[in-house]
Design a protein that fits this description.
The chain has 186 residues and is α+β, with helices and mostly antiparallel strands. Helices cover 40% and strands 22% of the residues. It has a four-stranded antiparallel β-sheet.
Amino acid sequence: MTTTIRHRDDYYNQLERRLFLKGSHIFLEGGQDTDVFIIESGSVEIFKGKGEGRTSLARLGPNAIFGEMALVTGQGRSASAVALRDTTCFVIREREFRERLNNGARIGHSLMRVLTDTITSSTSRILEQSAQISRLKREIKERDDRIDELQERVYQAEAALNPEVDREDEAPLGPKVVSSKGVVAA
């Protein structure tokens, strides 16, 4: 679920606008900046990780708010953001946000809605992934059991076709020869 805010010209006109070209990073996971962004036009992908370990968390469009977690937690960015096409964002700096919040600006209410939606969405995603992990564990156990069963059948078939092979050490049991001195040889 993506939370958006209504466009209010008087408020937005006071904000810095920033253009991000397609493919450019808006911020990187672990970064220490705390700006909050509102998409005016374009689209943004929020993701974690790099390369093959990259996981998309959300794709956002006009009026969506993102980047709020770093502002609220005071910790580094928990994910990265990249422009999916040329994107213009309004930028709310931490100092400006706190001033507006102290003055009772509606942005505080909007941010609370965003945070609530983020928590709800994250909780749902965690529950879905937990159920998926449980299902995959069951499937893996079932496959492991099936593999064990098939290996046992292979051993039984080999034993039936070649009774000279001992399953324990896989050494041939061939005929034993007793020498004239009473020594047993294989």
